[in-house]
User: What shape does this take?
Amino acid sequence: MDGALNSWKTGDGRLFNQEAEEAFVGSFFLDGGLVQECTVKPDQLYTYKMREIFAVILRLAEKGKPVDVISVAEEAGH
Assistant: This one.
């Protein structure tokens, strides 16, 4: 891989980048405090899986719980 990010157009013409969404959501596992500064809403993400994970992260933050893989999996019911 040459390090370039691949973007695709959605059916309605918006650009979408899977790797960027994964990096965005993954950043909250590295620094849970980022949630407090974030203004992005889950429905602004294109990928269903990333929207769901991000929504769980936001719920955990609202409850004052830690944002980590185990907490996210438990909150998501997995």
Notes: The chain has a mean pLDDT of 88. Helices lie at 18-30, 48-63, 69-76. The two ends are 32 Å apart (CA to CA).
